[in-house]
Amino acid sequence: MDPRGAAGGRFNARLAFLLAMAMFVLVVDTSLMNVSISAVVRDLDTTVSGVQGAIALEALVSAAFILIGGKTGDLIGRKLAYILGLLGYAVGAIAMVFAQNLTAIIIFWAFIGGIGASLLLPAMQSLIHGNFEGDHQKRVYALVGASAAIAAAVGPLLGGFITTFLSWRVGFALEAVIIAVVLAGIGLVKDVPYHGDRSIDLVGALLSIVGMGGVVTGILVWQEGGGYVGLIIGIGVLGLGLLVFWLRSRKRRGKPTLLDPALFESKMFRAGASGQLLQQIALGGTMIVLPIYLQMVFEYNALQAGLSIAPLSLSMFAVALLAGRGLKRRPSSIIMWGFVLLVAGLAILVPIVPIADSGWYLTVPLIISGCGLGLLVSQLNNYTLSPITDERVSEAAGVNSAAGSFGLSFGLAFAGAIMLATLAFTFTASADGSSVLSSEQQQQVSTVLEEDAEIMTNTGLEELLVDQTPEVQEEILRINTDSRFIALQVALLVPILAGLLGIANALRMRRLPDPKPSASAEGTMLG
Q1: pLDDT score at 196
Q2: Based on the number of CB atoms within 10 Å of its own CB, is 230 exposed (0-12), middle (13-18) or buried (19 or more)?
Q3: What pLDDT is attached to residue 325?
Q4: Where is the Major facilitator superfamily (MFS) profile domain (predicted)?
Q5: Most distant CA atoms of the chain, gap in Å
Q6: Tally of CB atoms within 10 A around 422
Q7: Which of 75, 253, 352, 377 is most buried (CB neighbours < 10 A)?
Q8: Cα(44)–Cα(39) distance, rounded to whole angstroms?
Q9: CB atoms within 10 A of CB 141
Q10: For position 97, what pLDDT does the model report?
Q11: What Å distances lie between residue 345 and 20, 45, 157, 499, CA to CA?
């Protein structure tokens, strides 16, 4: 059997299916974590902010290393990079099965798993290019893309079902089993040699890690009440600035760069990558606020949370499928309306938060936002990569993916940090103004929140207040309820602001010429 699946050869369906399985695990992994937050917090006796920080860190590591991951695959071989990426994910999944504390999740799932993703995605794309040709290659990209879309759509439901009726550990164990099946078929994969320049831009790689890592890490440190936040974020911003200077300087001297700064000379590429960044900030902020709201306020289990979030993911999947095939409007207009619908749905959610008594209240706003995300998913990738030549599309896709992953990690971290900061401020202000709490109790509340602000269920808070008088219990529970609502409403402003900036960016896109359809752009998964 011809493994390349040329036009006249047989289609290697088994290899195509295994590649789709790998992509499914890659996408469903974070969905499982999102809907399992309360279960993980309870089983490991940790905090919501700690688990949320681990989720943001995983996306950050993937973003920071994905450009380096592509170059690593060029140097060591795409097949080996693919294997190492799968093994990184397997290590993270197995660690989740046996984890006894948050440290294990951060080290193995967030860090090693994030590095695995940075190796896996670029290598997978190169291997599809090298193992299939012509119509067979298009079929594989369609299959792998469909696998990712299905995983995004059913991930919350699947993760919620497994976590509720079995355990979140079983979910990650199943991920490890799928990866083992994919690795068992590694003999079907033909390596794709790299014949380009093998020079490495180590300084550029270091600056990209310091830049993106500094910004998001600073936000996570702020969220956990740590010090030197301004310094850490400042180092990150300085790192990004130095990266731009370094790349331009290296390019002028004719030396190899981590990425070609000439990519950003295209106004369409800049606008598209900016749209990808803003879309992922909005998605990250939404997907951390909603699970916390459902699990901490309504005290939903994972399945109930997954069912409540499903309208967002399912409408996104359906609209992306339909818009990718049938809409004949200008891509920039579709992108603009995507951001408009995204913002509209989230804006409707803000006043609903304090009055809703079940997840059903969220259905219509989430469908509206999901439709907006579906329009964005159907257009942004092709819009961004369409002006790029075929020989540079893989590099451009890596940059686009890094922008998306960085946006996701920033949205997760910033929305979570804003939520906890608002909680601490409103809880303290309400406690200080209470006529029920004594001065000593007010000071105690202020001290505790200054050291460790956390979103808590009323049930969990009642257990901590068991020694207090009924009046004090009732007052603190009232303050907790009101403060949580305000904190969640303020946190929703993060994805709303990202969406508004996305609308402004889309209006700029409308002043540019429409992109031409690009077969190379359609044949990419990155971003």
Answers
A1: 65
A2: exposed
A3: 61
A4: 15-446
A5: 83
A6: 20
A7: 377
A8: 8
A9: 21
A10: 92
A11: 31, 34, 21, 11
Can you give the pLDDT at residue 521?
52
Q: Dig out the tokens for 149 from the structure.
A: 């879309």
The confidence score (pLDDT) of residue 413 equals 82
Q: What angle do CA 397, 525, 364 make, to 5 degrees?
A: 110
pLDDT of res. 522: 54
Do 11-187 and 271-515 share a fold?
A: yes
Q: Write out the two tokens for 70.
A: 């592509």
Residue 514 to residues 333, 384, 393, Cα–Cα distance (Å): 10, 11, 18
Q: What residue ranges do the domains of the chain occupy?
A: 11-187, 202-257, 271-515
- CA dihedral of residues 175, 62, 194, 381 (deg, nearest 10): 90
* Contact between 278 and 402 (Cβ < 8 Å): no
How far, CA to CA in Å, does 459 sit from each of 28, 203, 299? Answer: 30, 51, 8
With a cut of 50, which residues of the chain have pLDDT below it? 1-8, 451, 526-527
DSSP-assigned letters across all residues of 154-187: HHHHHHHHHHHHT-HHHHHHHHHHHHHHHHHTGG
Buried b (16+ CB within 10 A) or exposed e, 207-224: bbbbbbbbbbbbbbbbbb
- Interhelix angle 363-385/393-432, nearest 10 degrees: 150
How far is it, in rounded angstroms, from Cα 135 to Cα 144?
14
Quote the CATH superfamily of domain 271-515. Answer: MFS general substrate transporter like domains (1.20.1250.20)
Angle at 342 between CA 337 and CA 344, to 5 degrees: 90
Q: Which of 137, 131, 140, 138 is nearest to 20 (CA)?
A: 140
| DSSP output for 242-290 | HHHHHHHHHHHTT---SS-GGGGG-HHHHHHHHHHHHHHHHHHHHHHHH
CATH code: domain 11-187 is 1.20.1250.20
Torsion of CA 199, 200, 204, 208, to 10 degrees: 140
Please list, in sequence order, all residues whose beta carbon lies within 8 angstroms of the beta carbon of residue 154, skipping any fewer than 6 positions away. 28, 313
Residues 6+ apart with CB under 8 A from 170: 162
Q: How far is CA 56 from CA 3, 62, 227, 285, 411, in A?
A: 38, 10, 19, 10, 8
